[in-house]
Amino acid sequence: MDGSRAPGGSSSGALPRFPAGFVWGVSTSAYQIEGAVDEDGRGRSVWDAFVERAGRVKDGSDGRVATGHYQRYREDVALIEELGVGAYRFSVAWPRVMPDGGPRVNAAGLDFYDRLVDALCAAGVRPVPTLFHWDTPEAVEAAGGWLERDTASRFAAYADAVAARLGDRVDRWITLNEPAELTLLGYGLGQHAPGRELGFGALPVAHHLLLGHGLAVQALRARGAGGIGIANSHGPTWAASESAADQEAAGLYDLLLNRLFAEPVLLGRYPEEELTAPLLSGTGPVDEDLRIIGEPLDWYGVNYYQPTKVGAPAAEGAGGGDFAGIELPPGLPFAPREIEGYPRTDFGWPVVPAALTELLTGFRDRYGDRLPPVVITENGCSYDGVGDRERIAFLDGHLRALHDAITAGVDVRGYFVWSLLDNFEWAEGYARRFGLVHVDYDTLVRTPKASYYWLRDALRAQR
Ligand code: FCB
After folding, report:
1. Is 412 helix (H, G, I), strand (E, B) or coil?
2. Is 214:268 a contact under the CB 8 Å cutoff?
3. Longest dimension (CA), the chain
4. Looking at ligand 1, which residue's alpha carbon is closest to its atom 10?
5. 429 C-alpha to center of ligand 1: Å?
6. Distance 2 CA to ligand 1 centre (A)
7. How do the residues of the chain divide into helix, strand and coil, expressed in percent and rounded to 5?
8. Are 190 and 196 in contact (CB under 8 A)?
9. Is the pLDDT of residue 279 over 90?
10. How many CB atoms lie within 10 A of CB 17?
């Protein structure tokens, strides 16, 4: 690795050249940008319900208007085109397509994505839909949500309906976004919708999400679709020290946040089965399910933001604590440790580009030829300013780190910035600005930030 780089990772000058055919893109998700929650027959999602509960979203906001993308999608497609990326990752809202969670299909909901896909194709931008970015229809949640095995089948039926409509123009699909976060934050800790606080009792959710992924892959393939992947969140776990207790604590954290979601998909089995299988029990025939979950993928999506440093709890019954803004309850067998010596984003997340190289080479070493080509489906940072020097340094540093991984032999095929626009950052509300484009939430006026122009110029230089 290039030792002349600052800990934040950036160095000046042109980016190294990425391989021919490398896909550049930007990412968003439906609830975070669309607004228009009552339009064209959309049903309610768990997020519509969650934001109504007092205190759940820090600034008391919600996604009713968000960035107004539902009306302004043409303007946003023009911004993407001008940026010069070749691909756009967005999510399809299940409750727009199936307001009752199925089986009734709302044609008007699909019409929106149809128009969006047409606009993208006309602009020469490849549409990369994510079928599920956390907005479970309220009706599905009322029937038990992802705690219910049947939700996996309902999701596959929805995937089929989307593929039937968009499949003629879409050749890259993402089934799920970050099942780990939905399991942990949505069902384990209650910090995201649907706001359940089940602790380890949430683990069947992980299994049903993964099963939903596998069934959706089958449904897409049955429609002749190719280019199928998943977007899993991953980050290296650093043990606080060499001590056996810290190593064990870090291993457990890594198991729950990384391996539990990667290995069923990549290897068709759960890691440490004797440990994890009982936690998933009551979920039906796990072995058969794993064959479905392990359906080979065309590529594997990684959302990367930061590493985590973990140690053994200071005392019996301690543990838990603040993991990068996520408050884990006491009593857990691991505890967060401060990562020192790196700049931080305005969200407080450490900026550690080299950890992206470490993550990817680590995946390659761990999974070998079971790892399909990798695409970074999200990477980005939250800073408040429009001036945006820090975001440029962040992107510059991470792209160099990504290039290092490619040089080290990892097959990486694409990189998507989170996010095109400032948007509704879940429980954080509108306070966190991840966009390359600033959004004025009073007027919905879009203003490209300095990082937008930096990326545009960097991509021009790549051509
Ligand atoms: C990821 C989510 C995405 C966004 C970024 C900051 O975990 O997939 O929607 O919130 O974090």
Report:
1. strand
2. no
3. 60
4. 425
5. 12
6. 29
7. 40, 15, 45
8. yes
9. no
10. 10
Overall average pLDDT of the 147-164 stretch? 97
What would the mean pLDDT of 279-298 be, rounded to a whole number? Answer: 84
Residue type, 129: P
Closest CA to 350 of 232, 238, 448, 185: 238
CA pair distance 309, 267, nearest whole angstrom: 26
- Helix axis angle, 260-267 to 203-222, nearest 10°: 30
Q: How many CA atoms are closer than 13 Å to the CA of 367, on its beta-carbon side?
A: 25
Over the chain, what is the mean pLDDT?
95
- 3-state SS, residue 235: coil
Q: What are the pLDDT digits (tens) for 191-238?
A: 999 999 999 899 999 999 999 999 999 999 999 999 999 999 999 999
3-state DSSP assignment of residue 91: strand
User: Which amino acid appears at position 292 of this protein?
Assistant: I
CA distance 114 to 146: 28
| Rounded Cα gap, residues 135 and 346, in angstroms | 26
Q: Is 45 in the pocket of ligand 1 (CB under 6 A)?
A: no
178 labelled catalytic: yes
Query: Phi and psi (nearest 5°) for 308?
Result: -130, 135
Tell me which amino acid residue 353 is: P
Nearest Cα to Cα of residue 131 among 180, 82, 97: 97
* Residue 378 annotated in active site: yes
Catalytic residue among 34, 141, 178, 263: 178
Show the domains of the chain with their CATH numbers. 23-462 (3.20.20.80)
- Nearest protein CA to atom 9 of ligand 1, as residue: 29
What's the residue count for the chain? Answer: 463
Sequence-distant (≥ 6) Cβ neighbours of residue 246 within 8 angstroms? 239, 240, 310, 311, 312
DSSP state of 386: S
pLDDT tens, position by position, 327-337: 888 888 999 99
